């Protein structure tokens, strides 16, 4: 197996995996989508009743949105995750009561008129848990409206709920394999014009495949060609794999964690099989 | 041309027809001749009173004094007419509320909604008492309250009614509306009665006072009939004339049984001379014989003894004998007078002065029948929109108010006469009963039962979504019954083009009978026809002397006014006058070449549509107009005044030749090669000679093409999209769909959830939905701008793939992405408001909001009240489940004399309000206020989140509806090479047979829109073209047909077929599983039959019906039948007297002994299992005096 990295930024990764097969890459894709854990707000407590500010003016603890909508919006805010220092709340030594090794607390205190943003979530404890994406609008408050919220983030996986899904837009495609029978080609250019990805080009009075990596196997060129000289097929052993993250983990972390989970899983399998042989 | 449509909506709202009509009804300072004032001017305290607008007391009851009370405006003594510029006597104030403690203050709609009040304003009337000819000072008296239409001139929200030291700007008005808790997109046009919003549905009716001839096939022979629906001031009378087999013309008149020969009737009306009769009928020599036969028949001595009928006296005598045989002479005369003056053609007048007019009119009717028979006239088309009139809110109010006001005046007269004493004098204010009027009006609004026996006129405004409310306010219903077929009436008639939406109509029994207005319509308010008649006389229209003529007949509002010899010139002249503003724009004129008639209409209720005027192949609209409209300088009313645009009714449209498009749009720009839609080109030279010059908006190059306007065109369509209504206008590319699908799409738009109003947190609707993340549609239509769809959307843009998924989307099911749902796709909140009032009962007792103490009858366990505060009310944000108490309430005992025991005080009853069984949620708000009668009123709103689940209904805008069949995790869904995963998978079988091509087009359009970050235009007949969209797809790296290669999320392999995938707007419909799910194992039974209750709301059982029973019989499963029908239903054990001569039901008495109460037998009593319904039957027969005896036998 050979991996070429086309792109690797904190939130996006694109790789070419050669000498592989779709099942393997799909296993990786499914793992990073649904099994890589991340932190997300899971519990939101709302203050009920009037909220006083320093000047003694009372605000109503109400917003244009219902509490459950606010809670849902907060849950989807990407929370910075340190996979090494947190464990699942249910598996924590605190027996699920919530402690610094399984949960992060945030507070939000805002008085209208204003727009509440994700950046208004104040981490209780370490500043390193401050939300990086601080301009996600949560709700607009009107005059006399205020919010006082305590939110708890904990670890979870995309399988439980998509608020714990770290990788987004995960997908892959087969590498394009385009064959042109130059002997019969009339160089009509219709295939060049119809290709949405600019895979084909005309060079030296010949149609050439200039960017095979861009081919989506859409077959537009085959369909438009009157002489029938183009053949497009995908190569299942060479796969372009891409995914993005929501920012709570870097793309690299997601990939490594995903592989580790796969490894652990096979490790368990091997152990089990090993036990059978004994 | 969209500029025109935009200009129209800058001036008028979508419900303008209702508000304008209601404003026409209301008396205001700038509108002295309101319909309300006209009713007052024309009121008669009793039907035989000669004078109008005056109450004349009976001198016998007023000790001989002659007392008159003038309520209408003063009439001119000579002409008897009211001066139209005179000051109105009736006035309506602004909406106020009179509290129980006597205080009054201005009422705003939101307070009325919250406190279950009526949004109504006081009506004051000036009474002038004239005692023995001496006029007293006028007295202004409150006579009742009038429900006020929201956003009408008397509404407190109207611009003119906002108190400010300066002229309020639009911004001020908006600010004020927000302050009063109103939604800025609320259209108004409805009423608030008892806190509920009520819309008045426009009624479609046959045009009154017109002669309609038709041919009835009866038993193989055709019968020629003419009908006249004569209508005056709410009184309708159908006069029917038919030709009998022997050629005799007979007339049927309401209130007179049987038929009257035409000639007799005409003679009785004073037309004695046979020659006159002949002239008034015959228009063609061929008719002469029939008329002669008719006249001769009257002279038949046998049929009309003693001498036949020659004179008016003869005729009246005959009628007296026919209709009032054997009565006193005075009575006979009166009866005949009432028939010919009041029942016959009342629209021509109800006094003896109008008799000659009626006679001439009857001659015309006869002529029409004979012409039909001779084939010179065609049958009148009842479904032609020229023969239809609409009754809007103002007209309906007029009908209702007339009846209520006449009642009030009658009552006032009675009260004054009864209470009259010379000493005390007279006080109107103490004799009048304003409640009489108020209650009459409110009752009609609250029940929908209007005067004239029409039901369902006022309906609860549909607030499911903004679209449904708008559509509800633009609805038109036909009075035809839905049970009869009425195929022709249901068909789309060509004259409905541009007036009524061709697609928006319900499916099923009301199809085609309930209609909706097209986008731009105007309903005529009516102008005085006298002005038109004077003008016609000036223009040389001659009086009619006889019907036989070669000249053109001129009709105004169905009346034959005169003859003219140059019809074309006359019509042209009148049109020119109308276009130049010399004549009201409400006047419509048509020259009917075939019948050689000029038809002029200026009455009310004609549904009209706007058209651009075209002369000599050029529009009167020029480039300057377009630019003025763009810069908001030109207003719609200016265009009407200038004669550039005019309102055309269905009658005038018959005389018009209308071009739909001014020019063709080239497919491609000659210069830049861009695919063009009508939007991409600019018409540079409207109204100018020569070829049409078009400018490509993207490159600026100009093209010259042939104009489509020819010399004989009279008009040009404003914009083809305006033929659709508000709901069909929402469907993108409807011209690419099969018609029924557009109808279904329009129907479903009214069931879709979204943001129905921005004040949803304070509105106290009993049921309401709000979507969490509503979106504007990516593929938009121009109509959406005018119905505020951008601000009140109802739906979301879904990524949709068309493929099969494990068979879970068969038969219109849909597969949904669970992860999308978890991210908020299709979420909504359902809110229900519960209400309770501390009612007062006779005897001084009242309800109490409190936590019921344990000694209250029916009190629940303490735990049930644990959520309640001390005041008996629940707090906000409390989680509640079905059956939980929201409002603790106790009521006084139902029957005061129930227990004669005075020692123990009577127990109060527990009447708490609980959450509906099966529903749950959080308490959203608790509102405590005071109702109109001063008792405390509580409204508790409970909200519940509705996350899409299995069985919830979703639909695109193309009638493609489906229920969720499976929710799939993201990783199991198919994905594209870019990692894109669809939100929804629909089945490919949903497309071909339904021919919803626009669904496919919208998907690719949405794809382009989402890639380019813009909204696509899918407006009917002028949206972006398919070619342009395909071009854009390639530009954005997609295959030109919208297909993509996808990979199976489970196996990871490439899917062999290319999958069609795109972005399309989907709506969540309000049919959700959580509102329908229902099971029962045990539950309540009906008291009478002891069978399980019916219906989900009563936790009812599921019916085991005849067919189910038949099935079990077929299986021979006798015990199962017994189980279903007896044990699990109303099976009961009864004691039966075993005495073979008795066989009655026995009883187990208080001492525990069994005995038969009939025969006294107490030894042979057996227990029998039977259904309780059977026992009930025995008892009911017993009450009829039938003794049923049960003969018992041992089982063999």
Kindly estimate the percentage of residues of chain B that lie in beta strands according to DSSP. Answer: 15-25%
CATH level-4 homologous superfamily of the largest domain in chain A: DNA-directed RNA polymerase, insert domain
Classify the helix fraction of chain A into a percent range. Answer: 10-25%
What is the helix/strand order of chain A? EEHEEEHEEEEEEHEEHEH
Described by strand count, sense and barrel closure, the largest sheet of chain B is: 6 strands, antiparallel
Task: Give the DSSP E fraction of chain A (strand runs of 2 or more residues).
Answer: 35-45%
- The fold-level CATH name of the largest domain in chain A is RNA Polymerase Alpha Subunit, Chain A, domain 2
**How many angstroms separate the termini of chain A?**
32 Å
Our count of domains of chain B comes out at 6
- Which architecture name of the largest domain in chain A does CATH use? Beta Complex
Q: Please summarize the sheet with the most strands of chain A.
A: 4 strands, antiparallel
Principal-axis shape of chain B = globular
Number of domains of chain A: 2
Report the principal-axis shape of chain A.
Answer: flat
